[in-house]
Design brief:
The chain is built from two helices and no strands. With about 55 residues, it is mainly α.
Length: about 55
């Protein structure tokens, strides 16, 4: 049960981070340092999720 909650929490964080990244990219462009940093954070969250489910 705890594992399922952790996975759902990660999915929620991934969704939020993705929306933030898209908004920043729309405002600043895809190569802006804020967008790149957000993308890297999103990658880390996705990697953590994939480790949990595999």
């Amino acid at each position: 049960m705890k594992r399922l909650l952790n996975e759902k929490a990660l999915l929620l964080q991934i969704g939020i981070k993705r929306k933030v990244m898209y908004r920043r990219a729309k405002t600043f462009g895809f190569t802006h340092p804020l967008v790149v940093a957000c993308s890297q954070e999103l990658d880390e969250l996705i990697n953590r999720y994939q480790e949990k489910v595999s």
